[in-house]
Amino acid sequence: MTEPNKKTLLVVDDDHDIRCLLCDALSQKGYRVLEAENGRQMWQHLEVEQVDLILMDLYLREEDGLHLAREVREGFAFPIMMLTGKGDETDRILGLELAADDYMMKPFNLRELTARIHALLRRAHQGAVSSGKTINEDHDCLTFGRWVLDLTARILQDQDGQSVTLTLGEFSLLDVLARHPDRIFSREQLIEQSRGLETEVFDRTVDVLILRLRRKIEANPKMPQFIKTQRGLGYFFQGPVRTR
User: Fold this and answer.
1) At residue 104, does pLDDT exceed 70?
2) Which end of the chain has less neighbouring CB within 10 Å, N or C?
3) Number of domains into which the chain is organized
4) What's the pLDDT tens digit per position in 6-45?
């Protein structure tokens, strides 16, 4: 029987040694760990288990980990962390754009891995708790269009009070842009000022996070009303933005 409040992780990797390593290490950290070597076993677990986070190998032997992650994202809201042995920036970008919430490169540091898992689970919990909450009148907020960005609670809600889940990186970029309407930021400046971005961030990663933000806040992401591109320079947030 699963202990109350004990988080369940699902490790999807076709390397038996990696699965054993992760299961042992994460179990010692107090997690309940399930394992799968392919998509079929993964779906079998998801049909009967309450999973809180998936760690998935990007390069499964006979399947595309990104494709599986995208399918999972269509039906589940829990975090997905991709594991990959290749250092190609393109892999990171594709994963971020399609489904993943974070990356770890093999060989990985177990201490860093568990810290990132903890951070992802904490953010997911905060997002679930904040969903549907009324924004506190004492909080620092920015309003634009039909949106209210609560800077104190780190929540984005629409005019009907429905929360939109943002990753830490997405929130940090929106925070920087909306605080400085009509100011053009280069990708380097956005990375520098965004507290939520990891240390290993590529310029192209900013483009992907902007794309994801547009999908969440723009009525038509292909013709954005708020987050504009200044060709050759970077991005800017088109006002007006009101403080509250």
Assistant:
1) yes
2) N
3) 2
4) 899 999 999 999 999 999 999 999 999 999 999 999 999 9
Give the Cα separation of 60 and 205 in Å (integer). 24
Q: Tell me: do 12 and 41 sit in the same domain.
A: yes
Q: Which of 74, 109, 128 is the last residue of a domain?
A: 128
Q: Do the Cβ atoms of 237 and 226 come closer than 8 Å?
A: yes
Note whether 123 and 147 are same-domain residues: no
E strand or H helix that includes residue 42:
helix 39-48
- Whether the CA torsion 15, 18, 23, 26 is positive or negative: it is negative
Residue 36: closest CA among 28, 51, 25: 51
pTM (2 d.p.): 0.59
pLDDT digits (tens, 9 = 90+) for 130-141: 555 555 667 889
Per the CB < 8 A criterion, the answer to whether 68 and 40 are in contact is no
Contact (CB, 8 A) for 45 and 76 = no
Name the residue with tokens 């999972």.
72
In a domain, 3, yes or no: no
What confidence tens digit (pLDDT) does each residue in 172-212 have? 889 999 999 999 999 888 888 875 555 445 556 788 889 88
Please indicate, yes or no, whether residues 174 and 192 belong to a single structural domain of this protein.
Answer: yes
Does 122 share its domain with 156?
A: no
